[in-house]
Design brief:
Strands 1, 11, 14, 15, 16, 17, 18 and 19 form an eight-stranded mixed β-sheet that branches. This protein has about 350 residues and is of the alpha/beta class. The protein folds into two domains: about 180 residues, Alpha-Beta Barrel (TIM Barrel); about 120 residues, Lyase, Ornithine Decarboxylase, Chain A, domain 1, CATH 2.40.37. It is elongated, with a radius of gyration of 23 Å. About 30% of the residues lie in helices and about 25% in strands. Bound molecules: pyridoxal-5'-phosphate. Pyridoxal-5'-phosphate binds next to helix 9.
Length: about 350
Amino acid sequence: MSTGRLTIDLDAVAANWRALDAKSDQDVQTAAVVKADAYGLGVGKVGRALAAAGARRFFVAVAEEGAALREALGPGPEISVFAGHMSGDTDMIHDLGLVPMLNSVEQLTLHFEALPGHPFGVQLDTGMNRLGMEPNEWAALRDLVLAQNPRLIMSHLACSDEPTHLMNRQQLETFHEMTEGVDVPRSLAATGGILMGPDYHFDLTRPGIGLYGGLPFDKAEPVVSLDVPVIQIRDLAAGESVGYSNSWIAEHPARVATVSGGYADGISRSLSNHAVLFHMDTPCPILGRVSMDLITVDISHLDETPKTLTLVGKHQSPDDLADAAGTIGYEVLTQLGARYARYYARGRG
Ligand SMILES: *Cc1c(COP(=O)(O)O)cnc(C)c1O
């Protein structure tokens, strides 16, 4: 076995969904965001575990992602698409029974012409300036759109990882103004919005990262662990260098493990000379550059020769690793490469 071993705890995913569901009232529906292959963890397995936990509504980023999810879930659950209805999507939206969140006049026109009567939702821009219709656009189209019975009106918060940021209240107000008197289910909150409390919940919440054990849901159960095998061990004399560009030079004799895993597996090159792996409870620093397929690690201080080292586990979460790499847990998770052997654990049956 020479690839890393990525373990995904599906019971933890289910427990996180239930915990986030319990944060809003009984009559608020909790959906599940499974875009980007369920944040890199495998949309088929994760989607089924979430459906078994009770999720009935799923969101993907683009229509293409609906295919694997529909295959995993069967015909019942609703699958919505954040990117809306793009040209070329019509057959997928129709055949897979997807619900596009329409983002613009162009998309509305395309949808109503190509698939009249097919369910859709609307995405409004309340200030993030990324997707959705702007207030003036929406004001002009609102009655026409409402006459077509949208299934959902949604918007997205730009700063919900900072609950005290003024932008949150501003977007909430704008969302209220834009949807006042509208008798259609509304949704504003992703994971961060759920944690900000009932003002943000409306009729449906859309957690993603929290399901997968990531911040800002600091009470999440950990979902992912990653163990990488040691390929070779060597002893260095003082003055010898390790890896590309000789970026680490031994000041003392040292013992170095070369492990299988590198930036092609989503282990960021910015962790070079910077982060640690673990042998049980003992941190082992990365020495030198992270290369495409390999990392070199200091094991001078260990009493035994490890067969594997742990990059993500109980001592180091994806968010910890993200801090070391100067990014966010979302990026660490979604970058975890396709080369790992994946094990889907059902920790608690
Ligand atoms: C990704 C995304 C979500 C989920 O966000 P998390 O922060 O992962 O919970 C919800 N809504 C939209 C529009 C998104 O793009």
